[in-house]
Amino acid sequence: MWLYLHHTASDLIDLDPTTGRWRPVDDAEKPPGASVLADLPVKGGYTIENDKRYYSYWTSDEKFVFRTDDGAVFEICQKRGDGSVVMLSPVLRSEIAPSRYGDGRLRQGFSRFRLMDAATGNVVFELDYNAERYQRLYQADFTAAAAEQDLSDWDFFIALQGAIEIFEERAASGRVAFTAEVDGSAQIQGHRMRRDELLFADTGQTCPRSGVWACLTDLRVSAAVTQGEPMPSNGGQPVQWVWSRAD
């Protein structure tokens, strides 16, 4: 499976999840015309800390996992056929706190990432890493993309913590969020649509096609809109919609 280096969104590798072996992906292997990460068949990301690699990715059976350099695999959740998510047992939660030496002194610039069993509080994984490095990279980014990014786009472990929290919320609420597959297709309210069939519109935008539209943040929410009408809000909040089917 293809994974990208988290803080660069490039440096692709091909990881064998069975053996843990990996190799760099050559440019010649990339699909013709692929210019951005979304055009590539990536299944997750990785980071390198103290010359060791840590990975997060989706498996072939739709499980989201965190994998350590020594091959330990922690299953976080699994995506069902309808797009909903169920947390896997034991349910894991994460924590990021300032790193400390054994005598209690703060370790300047370092953070401690922990995975814990939510039921018992037992720590199943712990790592101290140089968080200041990613803070500096984030603050030094003056590209146009920086306006839409936050520290999680640089710090792998902050991103992982955020993902776990999102999956917990989705599992508890039953919310079905829009998720595109590797080939760009997506499951929309029980039927699969190809990448070139997907049509999106924002609240307030003129509806480009009559039919039933599904809310991107929760595909269970839908609205019938006629072409030319303004796209509605959801619960008074502006949202993005994806066309689902003819009314």
Structural overview:
By secondary structure, the chain is mostly beta strands. The protein folds into two domains: about 1-95 and about 140-175, no CATH class; about 185-245, no CATH class. About 10% of the residues lie in helices and about 40% in strands. It is built from two helices and 17 strands. An eight-stranded mixed sheet has the order 3-2-1-4-5-6-7-8, with helices on one face. Strand 15 and strand 16 form a beta hairpin. The chain is globular and about 65 Å long.
Compact overview of the structure:
With 247 residues, the protein is mainly beta. 11% of the residues lie in helices and 40% in strands. An 8-stranded mixed sheet has the order 3-2-1-4-5-6-7-8, covered by helices on one side.
